[in-house]
Design a protein that fits this description.
Elements (H helix, E strand, L loop, with lengths): L2 H12 L24 H36 L2 H14 L4 H14 L2 H13 L4 H20 L1
Helix pairs in contact: 1-2, 2-3, 3-4, 4-5, 4-6, 5-6
């Protein structure tokens, strides 16, 4: 939801008294915590609710990364790739996760997947130390195959 739409929503719905049959309690905000027309408290509650899926996504992504690191330690590359792909699904703009996935793809021999994820990490303004070694290795392997 864009900021202007969020402001419009707050103005439209929360400057008026809630209907008597539903009340604030039905929306998850108790009457004890804010008055009927308390815009700042309600705005804060709406803002937290709108950002919480993002926070949950990053927490879940962190869990997937921890699992992937454990799989990598045990030598289970396929499971590590699956967990890192799950992490990317939860946090698609995280360049560090994409760089880790590129490295895992390279370890499994999936050069095309490694290149795709390394370039995605670069496109998301990731740290060069994370993705550049993988991208260089991918390009080197591709040039060796082309020369062969």
């Amino acid at each position: 939801m864009s900021r202007s739409r969020l402001y419009d929503f707050v103005r439209e719905h929360h400057l008026k008294a809630p209907p008597p049959d539903t009340g604030s309690r039905a929306k998850g905000i108790s009457n004890a915590s804010c008055s009927t027309g308390s815009v700042p408290v309600r705005f804060f509650a709406i803002a937290i609710a709108s950002f919480s899926p993002t926070l949950v996504g990053f927490a879940q992504a962190r869990s997937y990364i921890e699992d992937a690191e454990q799989f990598l330690k045990n030598g289970d590359l396929k499971s590590a790739v699956i967990q890192l792909r799950n992490a990317v699904r939860e946090a698609p703009d995280d360049s560090k996760i994409r760089a880790q996935l590129a490295d895992a793809y390279l370890r499994t021999g999936d050069v095309a997947g490694a290149e795709r994820e390394a370039r995605a990490a670069r496109d998301r303004k990731g740290d060069e130390a994370d993705y550049l070694p993988v991208l260089a290795e991918v390009l080197l392997r591709q040039s060796l195959v082309a020369a062969w």
